[in-house]
Specification:
Blueprint (H helix, E strand, L loop, with lengths): L1 E6 L4 H13 L3 E6 L2 H13 L7 E5 L5 H10 L8 E4 L5 H10 L7 H8 L1 H10 L1 H4 L6 E4 L8 H8 L5 E5 L9 E3 L2 H14 L5 E5 L4 E10 L3 E5 L1 E5 L7 E6 L7 H12 L3 E11 L2 E8 L7 H9 L3 H9 L15 E8 L4 E5 L4 E5 L2 E7 L6 E2 L8 E9 L2 H14 L3 E3 L1
Parallel strand pairs: 1-2, 1-4, 2-3
Antiparallel strand pairs: 5-8, 6-7, 6-8, 9-10, 9-11, 9-13, 11-12, 12-15, 13-14, 15-20, 16-19, 16-21, 17-18, 18-20
Helix pairs in contact: 3-4, 4-5, 5-6
Amino acid sequence: MRLHLLALNPTDSVTLGFLPAAARLGLDVTLLTDQPVAHRRAYEQSVADGGKLPELSVLGCDVTDFREVIARISALGPAARPDAVLTNSDHLQPQAALAAAYFGLPGKDWRAALDTKNKALLRRRLAEAGAATGADPVRSVELGPVDEPERLPARLKEAGLPYPCVVKPREGVASEDVTLAEDAAALVRHCHDIRARRPGASLVVEEYLDGELHTLDTLGDGSTLHVLGSFRTRLSPLPHFIEERLDLLPEPPRPHTEQVLAQLRALGVGFGVCHTEYVAQGDRARLIEVNYRAIGDQCDIALADVLGIPLFEHVLRTHLGEPLPADLGARPDGRLRVEYVCADRGGTLEKAPPASDTECDGVRLVYRPLRGTGEAHPLHGTNRDYLGVIRATGTDQGRIDQAIEAFLAAQRWEIMS
């Protein structure tokens, strides 16, 4: 059986998650990407590091255009006809869904894929479904590509949207250019700043949701929908929204979980894996965004490990048309903390610890560098500032916390400006 995988830049979810899972399932894999050289390099490095990956055919393609994706796959001929088409990229969910539909394969509803990718559509769909789901819609205003930022303060007043508010690219990811605006002047300034980096970008301004940030991670086959887990997330100091730490909760919070699931159903989300972020305000779950893919930044790898389930294989089997089991067999006592080491300034990384795997007192601690020594980078205010990721798993949260704190105290990351 053949899997066609769409990707932009290489990610750990693909190289360390989906490709090894495809090898375990015996799948032939064709990877379509606009960055073939980078993916071949990542593939070769993973194999050199001992990764067990499938034979991989890497094809150059404008994967942002669903017409090019369909044409490229079709040109391969009947012998290379796909049995599954999928992606784990935020940017490519509608394209993969449309390609799967074209070839008559299982996949996500392209409308749901588009609605979750486009933050303005997401807000409108959730507002329309508000009464049916019992949700509390988040007020928002969209700034089109030719709209003037100076008109925004009046529009916010009309919409009853108070300050502070959050401005973000309509189709952005990874908290890039997501900023808190304290007043009208700051809002206009931030919009111009974003437009300078993203000419013609559509923006969304929405209500700032103050409260504890949670996730709900799900896996479905279009009929059965499993809750994989819920994380509590710690963010960087405002005005940016960088995820610095995630703790897997012992069980998904109630009644928030039911509210989030109701909103996902209203969006038509329920096929494959999904990572939803929401703010808990009392007994209300107020959605920030729905990422119709795995959680990423190595949290998906750690989640599969702590639950003791073949998560990536389940996702692949779902796209191959196989139903999910009624019970995933996840262990209930696992605990997980993921901590990101973030740069606090731009410059060259001069010193950092190497990759390591240790186990002590029932805690497995894995550290992986995300930036090499000698590399120079500006300060981005996004997850591109991550220097490394620490994943600690076990059954005792206190020991997990102690292990991470001890690791952080013993290591040094030095940046020369």
